[in-house]
Amino acid sequence: MKEILLKKIADKKIVVGVVGLGYVGLPLAVEKSKAGFKTIGFDVQAEKVNKVNKGENYIGDVVDRDLKAMVEQGLLSATTDFSFIKDVDFVAICVPTPLDTHQQPDLSYVKSSVEAIAKHITKGTMVVLESTTYPGTTEELIKPILENGSKLKCGEDFYLGFSPERVDPGNAIYKTKNTPKVVGAIGEDAREVISAMYATVLDDNVHSVSSPAVAEMTKILENTYRNINIGLINELAILCNKMGINLWEVIEAAKTKPFGFTPFYPGPGLGGHCIPLDPYYLSWKAREYGFHTSMIESSMMVNDKMPEYTVERSSQILNSYQKSLNGANILALGVSYKQDIDDYRESPALRVIELLQEKGCNVKYYDPYISEYKYKGEKHNGEIELTADLIQSSDLVIVLSAHSKVDYEFVQQNAIAIFDTKNVMSKVVKRDNIELL
Fold first, then answer.
1. Burial class of residue 325 (count of CB atoms within 10 Å of its CB; 0-12, 13-18, 19+)
2. Is 274 labeled as catalytic in the residue annotation?
3. List of residues 6+ apart from 354 with CB closer than 8 A
4. DSSP conformation letters of 230-245
5. Which of 9, 105, 209, 390 could form a disulfide with 184 if both were Cys (CB 3.0 to 4.6 A apart)?
């Protein structure tokens, strides 16, 4: 089986299936098809499938003309019908892995996808999970479902592995194609073949590891590392405010050290699908071994309380202008979880706005990338334009996303008071109405 698949990879005869056409799946599907592999995207949302088949892009990191060209050339198509899994040789699973209401891993999307795949998988297929999860998922959850559902044996009839997604939405340098890939699989043959498949598509190197669990832990480490360091900086932000020290200036000074220091920055909380969630996956799994991840959980506690701290500081700023939170007109600048993207998954801005409204604030928001968002089942509409009247009518402007499309000089000139949680106004000269996180 190994030699047959390696030849099919070399000859570009592999048919690729990508399950989940979101921020990870669609860019991967486009890159696979651009590399010359016929690719079929699978998604339960008919709207996404229809857009792909029309060549209509909905993901910022995908180039519109690339998607359209691949569809027109017949190299990329999409479907809601999982029976077409029987026609593919390589399946990448790129579905969401959120937390449930108890902050525990919700693998329902992964489980349902694998169950659908198992019904139609054929001998000689490679299956790779890319969705972030806890160490052990591939071997403990996915392998039994595939084997029981297909009556095929892993390692003999099909290959199974894990290769963590490393998508950074809005990153101008690193995209799917030029980001190194980590691959762990069950068995040496599986690891060799799956690695070869990725190496054919990507510009950068593929790093293979000894097992899926190592690859799964690699992803968790990458994002837990960031979570812990951001937690440290957020805690220092609270302390430095009490001490009257500008932490942003401290960080700039520390960055001059050419070794042993990596800059991280404070903010109103953590957003995105990975950094706020991944540590919970690890801490949940650690309890199975009677282990308490104290450092990780401490950082999560700090980061999770930053929206509350942002509201607390907002109250203090308003008090200095003889205003109270109750009844105050607040303008939130930005609701995406990071700058210059339209992704608001787990964005702390949404929690900040919710807390402000609970305190009796009248909150409006402007985001050049997001005209509306849904939060806890409710739709919220943003302001169409950032006007002088909108700014002047606000008792406080809170910068929650560092979008480069916003004219911050204009904001400063028209605002009564500004709370800049992202230091995006660092180059604004007149600062008498600006306060930093």
1. buried
2. yes
3. 375, 376
4. HHHHHHHHHHHHHHT-
5. 209
Residue 365: enclosing H or E segment and its boundaries? strand 362-366
- CA-based radius of gyration for the chain: 24
Instruction: Give the SS3 label for residue 162.
Output: strand
Q: What is the spatial distance between Cα 284 and Cα 133, in angstroms, rounded to a whole number? A: 11
Residue that has been written with the tokens 């203090």 in this structure = 316
Instruction: Give the residue ranges of DSSP H helices in 37-171.
Output: 46-53, 64-72, 108-118, 137, 143-150
Q: Is-above-0.85 flag for pTM? A: yes
* 391-437 tens-digit pLDDT: 999 999 999 999 999 999 999 999 999 999 999 999 999 999 999 99
Q: Phi first, then psi: give them for residue 365, nearest 5 degrees.
A: -135, 150
| Pairing state between β 378-381 and 90-93 | unpaired
Q: Quote the CA–CA distance of 293 and 434 in Å, as a whole number.
A: 38
Buried-exposed string 34-67: b where 16+ CB fall within 10 A, e elsewhere: bbebbbbbbbbeeebbebbeebebbbebbeeebb
What is the rounded CA–CA span in Å between residue 143 and residue 98?
21
Nearest to 76 by CA among 61, 93, 55, 91: 55
